[in-house]
Amino acid sequence: MNHLHRFYKKPLSLLLLSAAVPLSAFCQNAISPETVITGTTEKRESPLASMRLKTSDTASLLKNEPGVALATGGGVSSLPIVHGLGDDRLIIYVDGMCLTSACANHMNPPLSYIAPSNVSSIGVKSAVSPVSYGGDNIGGSIHVESDQPVFAKPGEGTRGSGSASTYYRSVNQSTGTAFSGAVANSNLSFGVTGSIDHAKDYKDGHGNTVTSTYYESRNLGATLALKGDSSLLTLKAGHQSIPNEGFVNQWMDLVDNNASYFNLGYKDSFSWGKLDAKAFWENTWHRMDSGEDKLAIPAVQTGMTYMPMETRGIDLGYSLKTEIPFTEKNILRLGHEFHRFTLNDSWPPVAGSMMMSPNTFVNINDGRRDRYSVFAEWESKVSKEVTTILGVRDELVQMNTGSVQGYNTGMMYAADAKAFNAQDHARNDNNLDITTLARFEPTSNADYEIGYARKTRSPNLYERYAWSTSFMCSGMINWVGDGNAYVGNLNLKPEVANTVSISADWHDTDRKNWELKVTPYYTYVNDYIDVNVLTLKSTGNTFQFANHDARIYGLDVSGKVGVWDNGSLGHGQLSGSIGYVHGRNSDTGNSLYHMMPLNGSLTLEQRVSGWTNAVELQLVSDKTEVDALRKEPTTPGFALLNLRTAYQWKNLRVDVGVTNLFDRFYSLPLGGINYDHNLASGRLTPFESVAGQGRSFNVGLTQTF
Q1: Is the bond preceding 130 in cis, omega lying within 30 degrees of 0?
Q2: pLDDT digits (tens, 9 = 90+) for 311-354
Q3: What is the DSSP string of 132-169?
Q4: What whole-number distance in Å separates Cα of residue 655 and Cα of residue 166?
Q5: How far is CA 668 from CA 72, 409, 479, in A?
Q6: How far is C-alpha 491 from the chain's CA centre?
Q7: d(CA 361, CA 95)
Q8: Helix intervals (H) in 212-350
Q9: Residue 94: how many CB atoms within 10 A of its CB?
């Protein structure tokens, strides 16, 4: 099977970190607000406007937030990691829809289903979050909202609004356009959005092409909304097409992904409180195979060229949430949620191949994962200075799948399929989450928060039901990009994380001139889903998912300070962040995979008249804590300098920027391995890390009307 500088410590010590705008996912009075980035604000320029110039990947909008890191995927499909826990250990809502990766390599993660141009706000909350923020996670939650429906004022008649934008990035010749438009009166609104993004392979700091980093993504959506005196009924529908997307750290590439959705929401206020109801359906057809870059490699052309894989996944569900105030000091929140994910994953036979014919390889057959959830949450204003919140969530997770088969009845597949089919596949988990939080605000310049959370996550369908131990097949079960192979485990237990977090936030009275926030945290995970070794090889190893205990601890620091404020120079602000995380498997002593090394950012921003100018410094330390069992590569530290400027003239905005100004070469600490490079060199070891993007000149235009 052929297809198979040291961190700059001085500036880091001076960083004062970026502030976060508080926002609650469901109720606006909840304590422990999430870090959120908004697309529109009344008093200041949108932070999202400058971020969209750099990326077509929605997850990257959180790149500079304290405690958040990104595991490299395709150009629109990176995987966010919060405090060392990522991918399915986070729960992600897109306009209230709980979406699931319908792919053995997680090439279509939830955030890939919404384009950055359509994001109005994106917020992240770490593990110590109220239970109303979502269950089935141990790492936290991410909530993304698209542009909300607009209405005319009473008596205004019918009004229209919209925008059009375009951009170009030189590092990968990336181009894209986006549009939005809406027409509405005071009660009825209809809007449409659309975008297309296209990029070739990017070049690293040495000018070399990093293959299988190309992508193309197309998104189209529509919103119909009806507003009453106190109610809002919203129906959203959309379609996404990704005709191709390269994955440099995977054996396969995405060769087609089509998804459609319907999303119905209703909100209302009554004398007793508030109601928030949601129902959704999302259908994904997904195909993987060797992409254009891998097919161009001579070593591939002389061996096995194709291995088609087809997946269909359906997410559907509903949620009912209420908020009931008791006097002026207490709020009761009650909720019920249902989420079903069904998955069929099969691999068509390859004509002329002895190993991959004559049958269809059935990887997951009628897989089903149902979640039934109820929660109750009590928020109380104990005194003027103290607010507390206590929440309990109970979830029943039911999973099952049907019988499987290999490409043929040969020894390579028969024993594994027979053993798997002989077992009872049904599994039921009863998961309990508890969150307790307390916030103390002794003065208008300081607030402190302490919290404890017990969070639970059941395994995903692949972790429980991927059945083949053949390296050729189990190597396709890999969403971490490490070149190894993974086999499921029917006997996996749910992960249970106990997290303690303390936060201190000092700031000026209006939170405008300065702020400093420090958050240490500690998590102990019982039955953390790691791996046991099945086969060790000089190339890639074969692992089986297995429960272990793990511990993770770290520190986030963020803040800002005003540097100057006068008429000629406008307003100047210095902001930044520091993040540190350390994770260990308590049973083996190994470092957990994909732990981000010490990192930080520093931004000096000036706003004067219609101009916004900024100098950004990104700092990452050496990555030396690696999972040697998975052959995770170490990476050296680096520092990158970015420049950006924007000018707003009436309804026209012009953005210009340069990322990686000095064209530095660096390796992505969470990039996995460069599988394409190993194929092209004719060897499978040693694994090399994926290089980051070189210098890029970026320009964007946005016209609103």
Answers
A1: no
A2: 999 999 999 999 999 988 999 999 999 999 999 999 999 988 88
A3: GG-SS-SSEEEEEEEPPP--PPTT---EEEEEEEEEEE
A4: 10
A5: 8, 42, 16
A6: 28
A7: 35
A8: 292-295, 298-301
A9: 25
DSSP helix/strand/coil, 558: strand
Sign of CA dihedral 668, 671, 674, 676: negative
- Tell me how crowded residue 504 is: count the other CB atoms within 10 A of its CB: 15
Residue pLDDT, tens place only, 477-528: 999 999 999 999 999 999 999 999 999 999 999 988 999 999 999 999 999 9
Rg (CA), the chain: 25
The DSSP result for 566-634, as a single string, is ETTTEEEEEEEEEEEEEEEETTT-PBPSSPPPSEEEEEEEEEETTEEEEEEEEEE--B----GGGTPPP
**DSSP 3-state of 111:** helix
Phi, psi of 66 (to 5 degrees): -60, 135
The 3-state DSSP class for residue 411 equals helix
Residue 591 · residue 583 · CB < 8 Å: yes
Distance CA 414, CA 420 (A): 10
Across 382-513, where does the E strand assignment appear? 386-400, 427-443, 446-457, 485-487, 495-507
Cα–Cα distance for residue pair 3/483, rounded to 1 Å: 11
Give the whole-angstrom CA distance, residue 434 versus residue 377.
10
pLDDT along the chain (705 residues), means of 10: 36 32 35 45 54 93 91 96 97 97 97 95 91 96 93 92 96 97 96 97 97 98 96 98 97 96 97 97 97 85 74 98 93 98 97 91 98 98 96 98 96 95 98 97 96 98 98 95 96 98 96 95 98 89 97 97 92 96 97 97 95 97 95 96 96 97 98 90 78 98 95
Name the CATH architecture for the domain at 9-704.
Beta Barrel (2.40)
Q: How many residues does the chain have?
A: 705
Does residue 117 sit in helix, strand or coil? helix
Of 282, 262, 395, the closest CA to residue 343 belongs to 282
Report how far residue 659's alpha carbon sits from residue 661's, in angstroms, rounded to the nearest whole number: 5
Tokens standing for residue 488: 């499921």
Q: Which residue has the tokens 């306009």?
A: 95
- Residue in 503, 381, 521 with CA at minimum distance from that of residue 455: 521
Region of 422 on the Ramachandran plot (φ > 0 left; ψ -120 to 50 alpha; else beta) = alpha
Residue 224: exposure state from Cβ atoms within 10 A (0-12, 13-18, ≥19): middle
Residue 33: per-residue pLDDT: 40
Write out the H or E segment, with its range, that includes residue 531: strand 514-535
Residues 672/71, Cβ–Cβ less than 8 Å: yes
Q: How do the domains of the chain map onto residue ranges?
A: 9-704
- Separation in Å, CA 105 to CA 78, 284, 695: 12, 15, 29
Q: Which residues contact 683 (CB under 8 A, 6 or more apart)?
A: none
